[in-house]
C-alpha cells in the first residue's frame, strides 16, 4: 500500500481571491489578484479569467505594478521569491530569489530598481517580528537571479499589506502597528513615531488597523478598531503634528485608499475627482467616500454584499474595486455604479451542507453566503449563481441568531432540491424548516415548491433522495428518534400541481438515528440507530433485517455500486470499518480504522475512505469485494477531512496504469480543515492542462490589431481548410484571396526597402478587386467546354450513322465482303480526337 508518484494532490480552483488587495492595470482593462499559489488576470469588462500566472511554490502574498513598464507586475510569495510577469501574454520574465518568506510588497516610482518587502526578522515562518526592507534588484539576463542586497527600512512592522503606505510619490513611508504610527523619510533617513493612548472611555479602541498616504500632499489617513479615521498632518515635525477625526463606521475600519491626483478637473463626476476623495470600507458592506477638502461631506455605495476587506483604485481613477469577506471582488465605475462582480468560492466558517454535485450543471454545491447555496463550476473555477434559500435579509450583527442552511440534497436527475434551515434562539425552541425546490426550465433555476414547518421535533441529522425511477421519495432522520419518508404527489389533473406529503414515520426501539443511505437501485434503505443498522423496504416499509457490529455508534453508511451493490459499508465511533453482505446478512469483513469520511463513486465500484491518524489524514481507495486497496496516500493533509465528493468527468481519461484507473471516470475533490479545495491529478491530465494553458487566449476586451485583421483571418481560413482536408480528402480546396500576395509583401518585407505607403495601399486595394479580364477568362473556359460537348455529340451522331451504314451494307448479301472492320470504343474516341484536332499549322508549313 504505497502511494504512487504519478498521482499528485493539487489545488484545483476555489482559492481565495480576497487574500490580498487586487491590482488594476493602467488602462483599467485587467484586474490582477493573488489566488493561492498563482496570480489570476481577470478582464474588468467580461469578468473572465484571461491568464493564470503559475510559478510560485507557496502562497502568493502580494502584487504590485512595475513603475517602469505598465505591462508588467511583480508578485511575491512565502516561497521567498519575487517574480516579474508580463500579464498580457501570461509570461514569467524573471525570478528574484530573496531567501526569506515574503508577506507583502510595495514599489515606488522614485526608487527605480528597488522593491520593498516585509520579511520576518528571523528566517522563520513562525517568527512574530517583521521588518520592511528594500531589495535592490540586480540587472542580469538570467531567468533566475539572486537578490541578496537587502537594507532595512523599518523594524517591528505589521505583516498586513494595508498597514504600510508610501506618500508624496515615495518621499516617505508610513507604517502602523498596535497603537504606534511610524513615518520614515528617505531623504533625512530618519523615522518619526507617534503614539495613541489605549482609550479610557468605554468601548474606545484606538488600535491602528490600516493606513493610506495622500499621493501629492503631506497627509496620512489611518483607520482604527473603533471605526474612526484620523487624518495626520504636519508630521514632519514630531512635536507639532495634528490630526482630525472622521467617524461613520460602527465597526473597525478594514481598509483606506486615496484616489490618485487629477489636476483638479471639476467637470468630472464626484467620485472621479482624483486626489479629492478618501475611500473607506468595513464590516457594514458600504463603500464610503470622504471629500478631502470638505471632510464633512461623504457619499455612500451601500449593499455590496459582505464586509469590505480591501479597496483598489486604477492609476487614472476611473475604476475602483473592493474585495469582500465572501471571496468576491466588486468592480465599480467612477460614477458609483457596480459594473462587474468576480465571485470566487465562498468559504464560510463551516460547510454544514457537505459537498454535492448538481446532476444538471455538474457544478459543486455547498454553503455560500449566509442563507444561500452556491453553485460553483469546477472546470471554469467560477461561481455560476447563488440560490437564496432563507429568503430573508441578512443582518450583519454579532449575537443575532438568524436562519442558516444546514442540509441539502439533490435527486438523481436534478429535478428536485431539498434544503433544511434552522435557527436556535436563546430561551426558545429550535426552529426548523424543510423546503423542497423544483427545477424550472424557463428560469434555469430552482423554484420553491413546498415548505414544511417543524418537520421533526429535533435537529435533522441527515437526508437523502431515493434513486428509484419509479417514485420520487425523500427520507429525513432526526434526533427525535424517527425517520420520515416524504412522497411527491402529482396533481397534474388539478390546478394545484405537484406537492409533497409525509408517507411514513419509522423508528427502532426509541434509539436516535444518525445516518441513512439508499441502495443503488432504491430497493433498500439502511438507517443507523446508534449501534444497530436497520434495513428497510421502501415499497412496503417492512423492516427486513438488522445488522450488528462491534461496539460503537454508527457514524456513516454507504452502499456499494454496480458489481459491488450487495455490500453495505459502515464506520463507527470505535474506529471500525465494517462491510456486510446484504444477501447473506452477515459481516463480510472489518478492519480497525478511524474513518472520518466514507465516499462512494457513483460511476464505479470504488469507495474512498479518509482516515485520521497522528493529526493527519490518510486516503484509501478500494473496492468492497477486493482485499487490497487500489490506491493509498499517507499524510494527505493536516487535520481531518470531513467533506469530499466524486465529480463525474466530461471526458473519460484513458489511463493505462492500474493504480490510476480509479480517476478515469470521476475526480475526487476534498476540503481541508483550512477550507482549501484539493483534488488528485495524474501526469496525463497535467500535460493536457499545460498544453491548453499555452494556447493564446484572446479576450473580448483586447483590441483587434490591424495585423490580426490582415493576417489572422487568412491563417484562420488556412487552419479551417486543413481541418476540412483531413476530415474530407475529396473536398475541393478553396484558394486564398488574391490579396494574400500583397499582404505577405506588406508584412514580411523590411520597412526600409518598402515603397511608399500610398503605393502599397493602392496595390493592396487593387488586389482585392476582381478585374474584367479575369471575369472574361472565367467565362471563356465555360464556352469552350460547351463547344467541345456539342462537337462530341456531333461526332457520336456521325459514328452512329456510319455504323448503321455498315450494318445495312452487311444485309445486302453474305458473299459481299467489306474492307473496313468494326471499330472498338477506344478507337472511336481516338478517331474523334483526331478529327477535331487543329491541323492549321500543317497547312502553313505546306504553303512554305
From TrEMBL:
Residues 780-796 have a biased composition (Acidic residues). Residues 355-675 form the WD repeat-containing protein 75 second beta-propeller domain. Residues 797-806 have a biased composition (Basic and acidic residues). Keywords: Nucleus, Repeat, Ribosome biogenesis, rRNA processing, Transcription, WD repeat. This is WD repeat domain 75. GO terms for molecular function: RNA binding. One of its GO terms (cellular component) is small-subunit processome. GO terms for biological process: positive regulation of rRNA processing; positive regulation of transcription by RNA polymerase I; rRNA processing. InterPro entries: Beta-prop_WDR75_2nd, WD40/YVTN_repeat-like_dom_sf, WD40_repeat_CS, WD40_repeat_dom_sf, WD40_rpt, WDR75. It comes from Hucho hucho (huchen). WD repeats lie at residues 53-95, 201-232. It is found in: Nucleus, Nucleolus. Its main location: nucleus. SMART domains: WD40. Residues 775-823 are annotated as: Disordered.
Amino acid at each position: 500500500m504505497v502511494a504512487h508518484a504519478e498521482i499528485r494532490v493539487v489545488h484545483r480552483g476555489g482559492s481565495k481571491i480576497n487574500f490580498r488587495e487586487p491590482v488594476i492595470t493602467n488602462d483599467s482593462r485587467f484586474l490582477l489578484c493573488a489566488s493561492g499559489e498563482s496570480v489570476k488576470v481577470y478582464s474588468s469588462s467580461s469578468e473572465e479569467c484571461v491568464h493564470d500566472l503559475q510559478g510560485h511554490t507557496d502562497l502568493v502574498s502580494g502584487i504590485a505594478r512595475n513603475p517602469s513598464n505598465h505591462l508588467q507586475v511583480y508578485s511575491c510569495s512565502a516561497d521567498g521569491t519575487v517574480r516579474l510577469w508580463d500579464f498580457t501574454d501570461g509570461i514569467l520574465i524573471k525570478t528574484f530569489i530573496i531567501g526569506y518568506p515574503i508577506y507583502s510588497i510595495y514599489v515606488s516610482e522614485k526608487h527605480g530598481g528597488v522593491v520593498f518587502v516585509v520579511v520576518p526578522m528571523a528566517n522563520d515562518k513562525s517568527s512574530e517580528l517583521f521588518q520592511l526592507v528594500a531589495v535592490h534588484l540586480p540587472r542580469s539576463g538570467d531567468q533566475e537571479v539572486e537578490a541578496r542586497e537587502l537594507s532595512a527600512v523599518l523594524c517591528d512592522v505589521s505583516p498586513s499589506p494595508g498597514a504600510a503606505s508610501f506618500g508624496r510619490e515615495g518621499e516617505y513611508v508610513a507604517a502602523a502597528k498596535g497603537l504606534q504610527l511610524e513615518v520614515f523619510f528617505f531623504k533625512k533617513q530618519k523615522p518619526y513615531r507617534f503614539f495613541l493612548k489605549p482609550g479610557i472611555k468605554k468601548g474606545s479602541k484606538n488600535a491602528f488597523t490600516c493606513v493610506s498616504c495622500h499621493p501629492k500632499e503631506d497627509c496620512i489617513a489611518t483607520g482604527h478598531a473603533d471605526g474612526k479615521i484620523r487624518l495626520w498632518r504636519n508630521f514632519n515635525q514630531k512635536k507639532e503634528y495634528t490630526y482630525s477625526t472622521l467617524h461613520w463606521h460602527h465597526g473597525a475600519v478594514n481598509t483606506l485608499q486615496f484616489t490618485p491626483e487629477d489636476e483638479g478637473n471639476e467637470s468630472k463626476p464626484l467620485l472621479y475627482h482624483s486626489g479629492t476623495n478618501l475611500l473607506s470600507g468595513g464590516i457594514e458592506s458600504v463603500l464610503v467616500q470622504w471629500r478631502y477638502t470638505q471632510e464633512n461631506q461623504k457619499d455612500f455605495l451601500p449593499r455590496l454584499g459582505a464586509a469590505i476587506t480591501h479597496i483598489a483604485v486604477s492609476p487614472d481613477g476611473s475604476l475602483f474595486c473592493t474585495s469582500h469577506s465572501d471571496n468576491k471582488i466588486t468592480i465599480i465605475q467612477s460614477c458609483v455604479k457596480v459594473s462587474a462582480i468576480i465571485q470566487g468560492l465562498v468559504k464560510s466558517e463551516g460547510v454544514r451542507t457537505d459537498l454535492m454535485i448538481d446532476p444538471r450543471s455538474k457544478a459543486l454545491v455547498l454553503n455560500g453566503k449566509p442563507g444561500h447555496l452556491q453553485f460553483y463550476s469546477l472546470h471554469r473555477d467560477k461561481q455560476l449563481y447563488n440560490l437564496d434559500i432563507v429568503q430573508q435579509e441578512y443582518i450583519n450583527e454579532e449575537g443575532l441568531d438568524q436562519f442558516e442552511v444546514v442540509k441539502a440534497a439533490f435527486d438523481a436527475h436534478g429535478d428536485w432540491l431539498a434544503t433544511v434551515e434552522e435557527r436556535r434562539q436563546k430561551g426558545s425552541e429550535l426552529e426548523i424548516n424543510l423546503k423542497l425546490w423544483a427545477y424550472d426550465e424557463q428560469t434555469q433555476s430552482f423554484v420553491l415548491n413546498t415548505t414544511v414547518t417543524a418537520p421533526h421535533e429535533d435537529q435533522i441529522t441527515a437526508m437523502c433522495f431515493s434513486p428509484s425511477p419509479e417514485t420520487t421519495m425523500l427520507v429525513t432522520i432526526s434526533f427525535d428518534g424517527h425517520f420520515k419518508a416524504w412522497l411527491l404527489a402529482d396533481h397534474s389533473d388539478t390546478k394545484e400541481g405537484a406537492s409533497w406529503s409525509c408517507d411514513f414515520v419509522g423508528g427502532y426501539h426509541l434509539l436516535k438515528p444518525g445516518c441513512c443511505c439508499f441502495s443503488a437501485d432504491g430497493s433498500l434503505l439502511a438507517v443507523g440507530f446508534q449501534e444497530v443498522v436497520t434495513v428497510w423496504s421502501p415499497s412496503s416499509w417492512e423492516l427486513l433485517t438488522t445488522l450488528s457490529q462491534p461496539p460503537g455508534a454508527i457514524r456513516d453508511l454507504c452502499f456499494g455500486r454496480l458489481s459491488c451493490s450487495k455490500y453495505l459499508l459502515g464506520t463507527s465511533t470505535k474506529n471500525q470499518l465494517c462491510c456486510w453482505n446484504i444477501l447473506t446478512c452477515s459481516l463480510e469483513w472489518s478492519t480497525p480504522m478511524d474513518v472520518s469520511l466514507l465516499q462512494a463513486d457513483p460511476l464505479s465500484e470504488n469507495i474512498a475512505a479518509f482516515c485520521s491518524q497522528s493529526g493527519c489524514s490518510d486516503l484509501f481507495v478500494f473496492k468492497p469485494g477486493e482485499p487490497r486497496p487500489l490506491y493509498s496516500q499517507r499524510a494527505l493533509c493536516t487535520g481531518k477531512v470531513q467533506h469530499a465528493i466524486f465529480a463525474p468527468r466530461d471526458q473519460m481519461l484513458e489511463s493505462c496504469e492500474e493504480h490510476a484507473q480509479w480517476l478515469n471516470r470521476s475526480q475526487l475533490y476534498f476540503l481541508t480543515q483550512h477550507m482549501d479545495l484539493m483534488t488528485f491529478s495524474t501526469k496525463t491530465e497535467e500535460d493536457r492542462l499545460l498544453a491548453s494553458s499555452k494556447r493564446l487566449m484572446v479576450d473580448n476586451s483586447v483590441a483587434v490589431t490591424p495585423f490580426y485583421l490582415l493576417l489572422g483571418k487568412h491563417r484562420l481560413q488556412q487552419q479551417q481548410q486543413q481541418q476540412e482536408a483531413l476530415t474530407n480528402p475529396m473536398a475541393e480546396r478553396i484558394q486564398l484571396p488574391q490579396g494574400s500576395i500583397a499582404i505577405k509583401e506588406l508584412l514580411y518585407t523590411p520597412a526600409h526597402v518598402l515603397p511608399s505607403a500610398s503605393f502599397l495601399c493602392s496595390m493592396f486595394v487593387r488586389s482585392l478587386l476582381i478585374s474584367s479580364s479575369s471575369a472574361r477568362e472565367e467565362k471563356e473556359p465555360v464556352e469552350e467546354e460547351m463547344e467541345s460537348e456539342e462537337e462530341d455529340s456531333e461526332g457520336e451522331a456521325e459514328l452512329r450513322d456510319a455504323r448503321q451504314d455498315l450494318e445495312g451494307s452487311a444485309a445486302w448479301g453474305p458473299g459481299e465482303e467489306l474492307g473496313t472492320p468494326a471499330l472498338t470504343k477506344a478507337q472511336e474516341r481516338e478517331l474523334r480526337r483526331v478529327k477535331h484536332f487543329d491541323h492549321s499549322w500543317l497547312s502553313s508549313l505546306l504553303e512554305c
